[in-house]
UniProtKB/TrEMBL annotation:
Record's keyword annotation contains Flavoprotein: yes
Keyword terms of this UniProt record: FAD, Flavoprotein, Isomerase
Part of the whole protein covered: 338 to 737 of 748
Gene: glf
EC numbers, comma separated: 5.4.99.9
Organism: Sphingomonas quercus
Domain UDP-galactopyranose mutase C-terminal: 176-373
Gene Ontology MF term list: UDP-galactopyranose mutase activity
Official protein name in the record: UDP-galactopyranose mutase
Length: 400
């Protein structure tokens, strides 16, 4: 398959981490500087270069493109995700078609098991989960719904991440699957987090054990980094890696800026820091063929320090005598991975957003710059819309 071809090519020739490329004959000024080579920055760069005819400089302080979706071959030749498991899923045909210009796909439907009461059971909670945990034989959706209804504790006004789950499955299943995991992942109780966080995970009464139910579910056949290389491979695009915006901003003249880093950092934390949650990733290669039955196993038990373990061969279809896995340990300090959805944080973001709206020559886009807990497809959709509105056919002329 494609992944094998990619691996062969990578083994014999090109490194998957792009070196910093700086053409000898570079323009004296760029139309647009783009900060961040993740989904937000790469989509903006691709549209601006190929559709708007702009000369674009993309910079990233990391030594690679693809942002948090960056994947690479490890020492065992296995494709791993440097910043944790990235599973592509979307209901948007537009987003899927757009990305399909830059990659072929490997069909993949994500399945996750949770270790609860010493067993591995499906999460999202479904009929199989209930039957396994309680030694039951519920056979219909109605029976499973009745089981849950008998335990669910109605909440008049569902506001928090605890309310969402307790009102759907009751206190016991909430504690088994959600309380510990959430307390570890976010460093706070689900009752302190917006409902949108645990609402990402549905409850099912059928036996569908897929993590997502989106129309399009697939992995880029040669990995995310390869897809980004194709998006950014345009004569109008220069790329500068390992360079922070602070260093680049004065050195490379540009008419406009697209910023996809943390919005509070852009404004020098004028109103204080926006809270982000971080993770520490521990990557390991084991001298055995398989480690676990599915790509991701969740560990809701608060006594276990990690939240989940990912085994990549399930995602890639690679074959090997070895297997590579990643443990995720939540952390307060480190790279900003997750905006933390809470009313007070949203209020602080709104103050920064007001500053952003006043900057006529700067466009803020992406998960960090718009402080939204967005999946990859949502960031692609946001970037496409932002390009259309700011630079495309829908753009208003700039007032000088
Ligand atoms: P990023 O990918 O964070 O890119 C921003 C880039 O800007 C970074 O590379 C950063 O180095 C650079 N940058 C920031 N500030 C500066 C500066 N001052 N100077 C220079 N460069 C700068 N989504 C899914 O759809 N499915 C998943 O399964 C999934 N799993 C995830 C798992 C984890 C652990 C995490 C953290 C996220 C996951 N996501 C998933 C979400 C996904 O990673 C994001 O939606 C997406 O990567 C956001 O793209 P972005 O361009 O907005 O931000
Ligand atoms: N969650 C949980 N137990 C699980 C899975 C998820 O408590 O087994 C909660 C947890 O708060 C998590 C949120 O639901 O942060 C969203 O889960 P998702 O898998 O979407 O997280 P992500 O992949 O974005 O880290």
């Amino acid at each position: 398959g494609l992944i094998e071809a990619a691996l062969l090519a990578a083994e014999h020739a090109q490194p998957i981490v792009s070196p910093t490329v700086w053409p000898a004959e570079r323009p004296s000024a760029y139309d647009v500087m783009i900060v961040g080579a993740g989904f937000a920055g790469a989509v903006m760069a691709e549209r601006l270069a190929s559709q708007s005819g702009k000369r674009v400089l993309v910079i990233d302080r990391r030594p690679h493109i693809a942002g948090n979706a960056f994947d690479r071959l490890d020492d065992a030749g296995l494709l791993i995700h440097q910043y944790g498991p990235h599973i592509f899923h979307t209901n948007s045909k537009d987003v899927f078609d757009y990305l399909s210009q830059f990659t072929a796909w490997r069909p993949y439907e994500h399945r996750v098991l949770a270790q609860v009461d010493g067993q591995l059971v499906p999460i999202p909670i479904n009929r199989t989960t209930i039957n396994r945990l309680y030694g039951l034989d519920l056979r219909t959706e109605q029976e499973a719904a009745a089981f849950l209804a008998a335990r669910a504790e109605p909440v008049a006004d569902i506001r928090t991440s605890a309310d969402v789950v307790v009102s759907a499955v009751g206190q016991e299943l909430y504690e088994k699957f959600f309380r510990g995991y959430t307390r570890k992942q976010w460093g706070m109780d689900p009752s302190e987090l917006d409902k949108s966080v645990t609402a990402r995970v549905p409850t099912r009464t059928n036996d569908d054990d897929r993590y997502f139910s989106d129309t399009f579910q697939a992995m880029p056949a040669e990995g995310y980094t390869r897809m980004f290389e194709r998006m950014l491979d345009h004569p109008n695009i220069d790329i500068l890696l390992g360079v922070d915006y602070r260093e680049a901003r004065g050195a490379y003249p540009h008419d406009r800026l697209v910023f996809s880093g943390p919005i509070d950092e852009y404004f020098d934390y004028r109103y204080g820091r926006l809270p982000y949650r971080s993770l520490r990733f521990e990557h390991r290669t084991l001298a055995q063929e398989w480690h676990q039955p599915v790509a991701v196993v969740n560990y809701p038990d608060e006594a276990v320090p990690h939240t989940r373990v990912t085994e990549y061969k399930h995602l890639t279809g690679q074959e090997s005598e070895h297997t590579s896995i990643t443990y995720e340990f939540p952390a307060a300090e480190g790279d900003p991975y997750y905006p933390i959805p809470r009313a007070e944080n949203q209020a602080l973001f709104k103050r920064y957003e007001a500053l952003a709206l006043a900057q006529t020559d700067v466009t803020f886009v992406g998960r960090l710059a718009t402080y939204r807990y967005y999946n990859m497809d949502q960031v692609v959709g946001q970037a496409l819309a932002t390009w259309r509105k700011t630079f495309g056919a829908d753009a208003k002329p700039r007032s000088e």
